[in-house]
Design brief:
mainly alpha, 0% strand
Amino acid sequence: MKCFDFFDRVKAWVKEHNTTIAALLKDATDRKVTKNVYQGWHIRGNLPSGEYCYDIAKTIGVSCNWLISGKEFKKSMFTAPSTAWWWRTKMNFARI
């Protein structure tokens, strides 16, 4: 994953909605992040902190996952383990 993809997605959204990055940051972060800070992240190749990433994604109307990686995570990745797994684990601890 390249962090520049994040900035490319933000730039594409800004261009599509005929606004500026400064206006987006003002709305998203309540003036906590300026355009200079944003450009510093971009130049250094750093992603914004989770808080700012969430704020930007929320303002744009996408998920943080999509904004960072370009894909959505499937819900099945986060399902609970099966009861058979839990039962085997419980039985192994009971033998100790």
